[in-house]
Write a structure and sequence with these properties.
CATH class of the largest domain: Alpha Beta
Structural class: alpha/beta
Radius of gyration: 23 Å
Number of helices: 19
Shape: elongated
CATH topology of the largest domain: Rossmann fold
CATH architecture of the largest domain: 3-Layer(aba) Sandwich
Low-confidence stretches: 290-304
Largest sheet: 9 strands, mixed
Strand order of the largest sheet: 1-2-6-5-4-3-7-8-9
Number of domains: 3
Oligomer: single chain
């Protein structure tokens, strides 16, 4: 038995959780050793009573590990533990990190740099469009957008990241074989087929319920550098996630909504309580210090290597003179259509490589 297989088995036990596992691993050298240990030795560990100890020692009669491993393989998923280099580093630091993460799709190193985008299931057109726009900008700037695949804001957040050809992670409150909501099955498959991954801490056949969603929410906030609440009512689960983010030491951001809209009362209240008001992705990117600092051009800045740019980005960037340059001159020099120049300049602004001045003039920042 491997360490990962032992973690899967422990994760499937009804009374075992990440906090109890951590206490056990302070005494026993590995998850495999825990499953081999006698009940009397397990009971000696703080927080492990008779019932939990008996459940561990009789684990082979309680769960079918072989069947679970077969389900994982047949589904095309994999399971990772905190020992995996792809397990989110920020998530390891929370009070109760998941024992196992089931992953359908592919995790990448860049997914360590993530922002959670959450909100109400019942949203307005304004909320949906705001979530799509901001997620598009954040994903294009290189951040992975983490959300919960729920209806409303979550769905819009994933769609915005995909539209930007960026990365997105959907953390669900059920097993991978019990995907919820079912109408997002096509979206989940699209994410898993090259845009990111569907992730769950629950074994493959676990149904969603009122307990699984709050557990899911702590993963979204724990994975991320910060949480953006786009639209949320006063009783929205997004506010619980925001509270968990604060407990985990994460930043909380919120999009302002109409003062008479019930769907915005919770997010507006967050702003009253100190969440940073967000109108554009740069409000988050600047705060997180992800991008280059905005300084006057200097010799040191001129020598600083540029990030990887697409052909259009490089063409437009090179078309900007040492002094302020009009958008018409940029289009003429780059030989690109005006629409392409405008969208490319926006991307360069988000990367903090150029700055727009009044009158549609642009200058380089690096």
């Amino acid at each position: 038995m491997t360490s990962t297989e032992a973690c899967i088995a422990l994760n499937m036990l009804p009374m075992m959780g990440p906090v109890r596992l951590r206490k056990l691993l302070e005494v026993f050298p590995s998850p495999e050793e825990i499953l081999r240990t006698r009940s009397s030795a397990l009971r000696a560990v703080e927080g492990i009573g008779n019932e939990v100890a008996e459940q561990i020692t009789s684990w082979e009669r309680t769960i079918d590990l072989g069947a679970e491993l077969d389900r994982i393989r047949a589904f095309g998923a994999e399971a990772i533990t905190a020992q995996s280099p792809l397990y989110p580093r920020h998530l390891r630091e929370i009070h109760a990190p998941p024992i196992v993460l089931y992953v359908w799709g592919k995790l990448e190193e860049r997914d360590q740099h993530a922002i959670g985008v959450i909100g109400s299931r019942r949203t307005t057109h304004y909320g949906t469009e705001s979530a799509k726009k901001l997620s598009y900008q954040l994903a294009y700037a290189g951040l992975t957008v983490v959300s919960g695949l729920a209806r409303g804001i979550d769905t819009a957040a994933h769609q915005g990241a995909i539209a930007a050809k960026g990365r997105t992670i959907a953390v669900i409150g059920s097993g991978l074989m019990k995907l919820y909501p079912p109408e997002n099955a096509a979206l989940a498959e699209k994410i898993s087929q090259g845009n990111g991954a569907i992730v769950s801490e629950f074994s493959m056949e676990i149904e969603p319920d009122r307990q699984t969603f709050p557990m899911r929410n702590r993963i979204i906030s724990g994975w991320s550098h910060g949480i953006l609440v786009v639209e949320a009512g006063l009783n929205s689960g997004a506010l619980i996630t925001a509270s968990q983010a604060l407990e985990q030491g994460r930043s909380v951001y919120a999009v302002p909504g109409h003062i008479n809209a019930p769907s915005a009362q919770g997010s507006n209240r967050l702003i009253q309580q100190g969440a940073k008001l967000v109108m554009d992705a740069s409000d988050i990117l600047d705060d997180m210090q992800i991008l280059l600092p905005e300084t006057k051009p200097s010799a040191a800045a001129a020598e600083r290597p540029l990030p990887t740019l697409s052909a259009d980005e490089r063409n437009v960037y090179d078309a900007i003179e040492a002094t302020e340059t009009s958008i018409d001159d940029i289009a003429t020099k780059s030989h690109l259509p005006s629409g392409t120049v405008s969208s490319t300049l926006l991307r360069l602004e988000l990367k903090r490589l150029v700055k727009q001045l009044p009158g549609k003039y642009f200058v380089k920042l690096a």
